[in-house]
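Researcher: If only I could read backbone structure tokens as easily as an amino acid sequence. Walk me, if you will, through where the backbone shape changes along the chain. I have put the entry right below:
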Amino acid sequence: MKIGKAGRFFEAESGESSLEILLKYDIDFIFMDWNLATEMTGIDVIKMVRKMDKYKKIPILMISSENDKFHVVESLKIGANDFIVKPIDQKSFSEKVLKLAALIEPVD
């Protein structure tokens, strides 16, 4: 995704397909749901993403319907930059995305 430009958004059907997208395209920002429709969770995907040199610093916003302290802390501990609970409040979402977009490293 290219934030602030005529960029593209990719939607992955599974944790595995999200990793395939990351390997195929240059991505600038990740929105990750905790609960995926596969055996992998969003936590599993973020752990793998943070091991990739190319994506060690990519901004990641974890999205979940789980709002207990465990889910928030675990997300941040494994590498998400922020956390938002569903249903998503538009104002809060916009503020978090703008804050995280500032972390995107410019491409020469």
Summary: Residues 4 and 101 are 9 Å apart (CA to CA). The first helix runs from residue 15 to 24. Residues 15-101 form a domain with the Rossmann fold fold (CATH 3.40.50.2300).
